[in-house]
Design a protein that fits this description.
alpha/beta; Rossmann fold; six-stranded parallel β-sheet; two-stranded antiparallel ribbon
């Protein structure tokens, strides 16, 4: 459902895509992901949305954010909010839905096709609005995880549903081979 001459934009809900890929048991190679969609059409923009914990000395997502920023992705980040719930558990909140929606609406007049990497049903009204503006919308997520990572309403609204598991061989990082990793050998003394 892609045409070579259509102008594409990718909108990646970082935490949602990470959770879907993790549920399927693989990591995404974002260089391969970008190349795959450049092959499918004229890729104008690839947006990646994520919230970052500001007060942590080291964030495990920081190297990915920096790599994406230097390798052709438009990064949209904001500070995550930390709070303690009623049970005393530390929670982190960092919803990027509004930022993604505003950017998609602004870009809609300049693209033919938007690819949304999220299964969040809150995006159903966004997809409907984009479609009314003449933009085709594909959604990438998974129904093969337990539970499925995409809402039924979102899947039905999209022009095209792309099963993330079907992209595994195209955009998945090869699993690390433990036989290639250095090993320490203990030598018993006499």
């Amino acid at each position: 459902m892609f045409y070579k001459d259509e102008r594409l934009a990718l909108f990646i809900d970082g935490s949602n895509l990470y959770a879907a890929a993790k549920a399927l048991g693989f990591d995404i190679d974002y260089k391969l992901l970008r190349q795959e969609f450049m092959r499918r059409g004229k890729l104008l923009r690839a947006f990646y949305y994520t919230a970052l914990l500001e007060n942590d000395e080291y964030s495990p997502i920081r190297p990915l954010v920096d790599w994406l920023h230097y390798n052709g992705f438009t990064m949209v980040t904001k500070p995550a909010k930390e709070y303690t719930d009623s049970m005393g558990r530390r929670k982190v909140k960092g919803n990027m839905d509004i930022e993604l929606t505003v950017d998609a609406m602004e870009l809609a007049p300049r693209v033919d096709h938007i690819v949304l990497f999220s299964g969040d049903g809150d995006f159903r009204p966004l997809i409907a609005s984009l479609q009314r503006q003449g933009v085709r919308v594909s959604v990438v997520s998974t129904i093969r995880s337990q539970p499925p990572m995409i809402s039924d309403e979102l899947r039905r609204q999209a022009d095209n549903f792309i099963e993330l598991d079907d992209l595994r061989d195209v955009i998945g990082r090869p699993p690390r081979d433990v036989s290639d990793e250095p090993r320490t050998v203990a030598v018993a003394g006499k």
